[in-house]
Write a structure and sequence with these properties.
The complex is a heterodimer of chains A (176) and B (222). Chain A has helices spanning 8-49, 56-100, 106-131, 141-172. Chain A is an all-alpha fold. Chain B is an alpha+beta fold and 222 residues long. In chain B, strands 1-6-5-4-3-2 form a 6-stranded antiparallel beta sheet, with helices on one face. A 3-stranded antiparallel beta sheet of chain B has the order 7-8-9, covered by helices on one side. Classes of the chains: A mainly alpha (176), B alpha+beta (222). The A-B interface holds A 38, 41-42, 45-46, 48-50, 52-54, 58-59, 61-63, 65-70, 72-73, 137, 139-140, 142-143, 146-147 and B 15, 18-19, 21-22, 26, 29-30, 33-35, 59-62, 87, 89-90, 92-95, 97, 121, 177-178, 181-182, 184-185, 188-189, 191-192, 195-196.
C-alpha cells in the first residue's frame, strides 16, 4: 500500500482516494457475486428443463451473457454513487481516527469504522423512509434485501476493515 | 502501481470483447431463440398491433403435450394469476410478487379482449406495468398490447409448437441497454417453464376436451 504523506491534507486525500476505490471495487464485486449466483441458478433451471430447440449449451451461454450484460451495466451506473459514498465515509473515518483515536487502538479504529458506516446507512434509510416515503412491505422484502440490506451489511463491514487499514497506515506514517 | 494499470487495461479490454461478442454473436442468436427461418419470417396476428418496431424477437419451443394442455398453462399468464413460469426469483428483486403456478387453476382459464395481464402488482393502478389483451383465439393464441403475441401450433396430437413474438417500440437506449437482454432471460425462461409444466401434466382426453389430473379446468381443444 502507498505510504502516507506527513501532512493532514495528504492523509485526507489518500483516505478519499482509497475510499472511492474501495466503493467502486465493492460495487463491481457485488455485481460479480450476483452474476455468479444468477448464472448458477439459471443454468440449473435450464439443465433441468431438458431438450430445447435453442440448444442447451447456447441457451446457458446466452442467458449467462445476458445476466452479465445487465449486471455490469447496473454496476457501471452505480459506480459513481459507490465512489462518492466510499469517499465520504473514508474522509469522515479518517477525521475521527485523528481526533478520537490518538493512541491508534485497533479496536477503537474498528468501532469508529463500523459506527460511521452504520450512521451513514441510517441517515440514508431515514432519507428513504421519511424523505421519499419508501415503505418496506412483505412482498418487497427480496427487493429490499438485494438492493439495500445486503449492500448495507457489506458497506458496514467495509467501513470497519477500511478504518483498520487507515489506522494501520497512520501508525506507519503518522500525520503531523 | 504498474500492476494496477495493467489490471485496469486488461479489464477494459475484456469488457470491450464481451460487449462486442454479445452484440455481434449472442444477440442475433437469442433474438430468434429456437425459431425456424419460416417462423421468424411468417406473419402473425399480433403484427398488426405494432408499427415500425425498433426490434422484433421471435422465439419458439417444441412441447411434447397436446395443444389444449399447453393452452391451459399459457392462458394463466400474469402477475396475480399463474405468473410467468420464468425466473421469479429475479422478478421478485423488483417487488413483482411473482409466484409461478404449479397447477392448472380453473378461475384463470378465461381470457378475453380487454382483460389486463399485470406485469407487476402496481399494474392494477399503473398502466405502465400492465398489458391489455388485444386479440385472442382461445386454444390457439392471444396478443397483448404492443403486439406481444403467444401462439400455439399443433404439430400432431401430442406435440405443440409454442411461438412468442415481441415487437418493441420502447426508447432505444433503454431497450438495447437493459430491456432486450433482460427480456431474453425472462422470455426463454417462460418458454421453458411452460414446456416443463405442460410435459409433466397428466391428463385424460375426453371428447374434445382435456381434463388435468388436478381435477381442474377442462379446456376446450381447438
Amino acid at each position: 500500500m502507498q505510504r502516507l504523506d506527513q501532512s493532514p491534507q495528504h492523509t485526507m486525500r489518500y483516505a478519499a482516494k482509497s475510499g472511492a476505490k474501495v466503493g467502486v471495487a465493492l460495487d463491481l464485486g457485488y455485481a460479480m457475486a450476483f452474476l455468479a449466483y444468477a448464472s448458477v441458478r439459471s443454468t440449473l433451471t435450464i439443465l433441468a428443463a431438458g431438450g430445447m430447440d435453442g440448444g442447451m449449451l447456447g441457451t446457458i451461454v446466452a442467458t449467462t451473457a445476458s445476466i452479465a450484460w445487465v449486471s455490469l451495466l447496473v454496476a457501471i451506473l452505480f459506480a459513481p454513487i459507490a465512489a462518492l459514498i466510499g469517499m465520504v465515509t473514508a474522509v469522515i473515518v479518517n477525521a475521527l481516527l485523528g481526533r478520537v483515536n490518538p493512541i491508534h487502538s485497533a479496536t477503537r479504529a474498528l468501532i469508529i469504522g463500523l459506527v460511521t458506516a452504520a450512521g451513514i446507512a441510517l441517515l440514508f434509510y431515514a432519507a428513504l423512509v421519511f424523505g421519499m416515503g419508501v415503505a418496506v412491505s412483505p412482498e418487497a422484502i427480496e427487493m429490499f434485501a438485494f438492493w439495500l440490506g445486503l449492500p448495507t451489511l457489506i458497506y458496514i463491514a467495509a467501513g470497519g476493515v477500511g478504518s483498520l487499514e487507515l489506522n494501520r497506515e497512520l501508525v506507519r506514517s503518522p500525520a503531523v | 502501481m504498474k500492476a494496477t494499470k495493467t489490471f485496469g487495461v486488461i479489464s477494459l479490454l475484456l469488457l470491450v470483447v464481451f460487449f462486442a461478442s454479445y452484440i455481434f454473436f449472442i444477440r442475433p442468436w437469442h433474438m430468434r431463440w429456437g425459431a425456424t427461418d419460416a417462423e421468424v419470417a411468417m406473419s402473425l396476428p399480433g403484427d398488426q398491433f405494432t408499427h415500425n418496431p425498433i426490434a422484433v424477437d421471435t422465439r419458439a419451443i417444441t412441447i411434447h403435450a397436446p395443444i389444449a394442455v399447453v393452452w391451459a398453462w399459457l392462458v394463466q399468464l400474469g402477475q396475480g394469476r399463474g405468473a410467468f413460469y420464468s425466473y421469479s426469483w429475479l422478478e421478485n428483486l423488483f417487488a413483482s410478487d411473482m409466484h409461478n403456478a404449479e397447477k392448472i387453476v380453473p378461475q384463470y382459464q378465461q381470457l378475453k379482449v380487454g382483460d389486463w395481464v399485470l406485469m407487476h402488482p402496481t399494474g392494477a393502478t399503473n398502466p405502465a406495468t400492465r398489458l391489455e389483451v388485444v386479440a385472442v383465439d382461445p386454444g390457439r393464441y392471444f396478443v397483448l398490447s404492443k403486439g406481444w403475441g403467444f401462439y400455439l401450433e399443433p404439430i400432431d396430437e401430442n406435440t405443440t409448437r409454442f411461438i412468442v413474438r415481441y415487437p418493441n417500440n420502447d426508447d432505444p437506449i433503454y431497450y438495447y441497454a437493459v430491456l432486450e437482454p433482460a427480456h431474453f432471460i425472462m422470455e426463454s425462461g417462460m418458454l421453458l417453464g411452460v414446456k416443463e409444466r405442460a410435459e409433466h401434466t397428466t391428463y385424460t382426453k375426453v371428447s374434445d376436451t382435456v381434463q388435468s389430473t388436478e381435477g381442474g379446468t377442462v379446456n376446450a381443444a381447438p
